[in-house]
Amino acid sequence: MDTNETMSVDILAEENFTTTGDECTNQLPTVQEYLDGLTLPIAIIIAATVLLSIGTFSIFFKNAYHILHRTPKQFKTKSILLLTIYPLITLFGVVSVAVPRAFFLCDTVMHVYFMICAYVFFSLCMQYVDGEDALIKSTDSQTFSLRTPPLCCFVPLFKRAPVTKNRLRFVRMLIMQLPVVQTALFLALNVVFVEDYPNFNRIILYFVPMIVISILLGVWGLNILVRMLAPLYSDLKLMGKYFVLQAVLILCRIQPLIIAAIVSSGISDCAFPNTLQVQKNAIFQLCLCFEMMVLSCWASLLYKSPSIIGPG
Predict the structure, then answer these.
(1) Which of 162, 143, 131 is nearest to 310 (CA)?
(2) What are the alphabetically sorted keywords of the record (predicted)?
(3) Fewest Cβ atoms nearer than 10 Å: which of 116, 142, 152, 256?
């Protein structure tokens, strides 16, 4: 009788272990569990992200040296802050791959820093044109337009108009709300992630509309700004500088959805600790680190000293 009971317990334990190993789980491993179950592909991804991060930091230091020695004094700080986004993302990409439980915190830092950079970009543009007052005086034509992506379809009746203080203040508010609103939302999401991770994916759906609306308004303001200034100050390469900044948002927010769909349909082995979430995140961070290195190279060509400060 005792022998039969012991055998039954062993069989049940074996079945439970098999089920746990075969099914995908949302649980994230600790660092020790992650290292104990580390596979060769994940190890290669970690090594590759480290190398890409080192490369991006090297490019950044070269760019920073160039800016400090050749860029006019009033543009130095903001230009370096904007260029810092690329090595910062690769650094937190490495941390996210190496410490799976830190992936959302790393994503939050990347996201919030981009929002800060959006306002820094607005301030740099105003410095390029010698301030809002100088911009208003130098643009006596109909250069201000609300009919720009992504909300151009919602304001078809608005016509082009002269640049005024109130219109520039409106653009400033659209961009300024990005770091404020996004930081508050992602801070709340981090609390949910820590306190109630099993329901995190369900709770985040209630935050998505507010996150998306805030981003759309901020991008709308940036588009209004760049499309207003780029034709007047062609030597500043504002459209290119805006694109290499906006590409960060696109790659960080849209690319994960694509990678998640590909990984979910192509990978069947998701036994703990190399869960589906861990594999998605590792592949995403590898792609992101490579893309940040490319964008950093491109930005180095754009953030050289403006040859002319004034209407081109």
Answers:
(1) 131
(2) Membrane, Transmembrane, Transmembrane helix
(3) 142
CB atoms within 10 A of CB 31: 13
What is the rounded CA–CA span in Å between residue 269 and residue 261? 15
Kindly report, residue by residue over 145-157, the tens digit of the pLDDT.
888 887 776 666 6
Count of C-beta atoms within a 10 Å radius of residue 143? 17
pLDDT digits (tens, 9 = 90+) for 231-248: 888 888 999 999 999 999
Query: Where are the alpha helices (H) located in 27-102, listed in sequence order?
Result: 31-36, 40-70, 73-83, 85-98
| Nearest residue to 119 via CA among 187, 178, 163 | 178
The answer to whether the CB of 172 falls within 8 A of the CB of 181 is no
Structurally, how many domains does the chain consist of? 1
Give the model's pLDDT for residue 135: 85
115 contacts 252 by C-beta, under 8 angstroms = no
Residue with tokens 């203080």: 165
* pLDDT tens figures, 29-52: 999 999 888 899 999 999 999 999
Inside any domain, residue 8: no
Domain assignment of residue 53, given as a range: 40-304
**Domain assignment present for 75:** yes
- Collapsed DSSP state (helix, strand, coil) of residue 27: coil
* Positive or negative: CA dihedral 141, 155, 147, 252: positive
The low-confidence residues of the chain, meaning pLDDT below 70, are: 1-23, 140, 142, 153-157, 268, 305-312
DSSP per residue over 178-232, as a string? HHHHHHHHHHHHHHHHHH-GGGHHHHHHHHHHHHHHHHHHHHHHHHHHHHHHTTT
Tell me if 1 is assigned to some domain: no
> Is it true that the peptide bond before 273 is cis, omega within 30 degrees of 0?
yes
- Report the alpha-carbon distance of residue 253 to residue 65 in Å, rounded: 31
Q: What is the pLDDT, as a whole number, of residue 2? A: 47
